Amino acid sequence: MGQLPAALVTGCSSGVGRATALALARAGYPTWATARRPDTLTDLEAAGCRVLTLDVTDEESRARAVTAVEAEHGAVGVLVNNAGYAQVGPIEEISLDDVHRQFDTNVFGLMRMCQLVLPGMRARRGGRIVNMGSAAGLVTPPASGAYSMTKYALEALSDALRLEVRRFGVRVVLVEPGAVRTKFMETGWATLPSGAGPYATFTRNVEAMAQRAHRPGARGVLTADAVAKVVVRAVTAGRPKARYPIGSQARIAPLVRRALPDRMWDSMMLRVAPFPADD
Description:
By secondary structure, this protein is α/β, with parallel strands linked by helices. Helix content is 49%, strand content 12%. The protein has a single domain (7-272), classed as Rossmann fold (3-Layer(aba) Sandwich).
């Protein structure tokens, strides 16, 4: 049996990306762990990963990372598009500049990474692209419109790309985890617009709801390692599924959403995160 193909993982500074890089390396894949700040990757390097600086919003950085892997291995055999972040807040109060930045990282940067690795994969007649979606791309949580927009976009991108590259031996997989206990949510809530605007009480209620859902011991919250195990399963499967929903939020919430009329769903969401009439 020959050497396993090289894996390139984006967004490895913490959380799911870090856990995925470690899991792939332990599974025997030559793994290239990347992040905007390489100083956050020293422990991954010690664990056997190769490390690279990669900002998925910068074309020179993207091309340099892919070229480095191709120079040593001939092609990127596995691309795990994990880099991304959450933007939280009411649609009216989020600046368009912030939404552009969100799409640059979560959608456009991911799409460009696919474009850069595909020529090498096609030449090898094989490869695997794993896109990190979210339960938020299936059901929109309150005050998460901008983030959900990016994850809904990945649903369409992955569906289109999966059909286009199949005849070249390339498989595209979308992983859809629910809430994960990492620094991800803290980063997301740091983007919440501050002040006492018309949505202040609503956003405070949504934040309190999220904190309750992510408290230690809360049911249904995933670990980064649990998500990484599914990514490895998707990479190693002979016939991978198109989608891997992980956790109750990704498996059950979409079924409830489809079953309920819009008015009933909205009423339920507003009971979870009340929006007082005097706001």
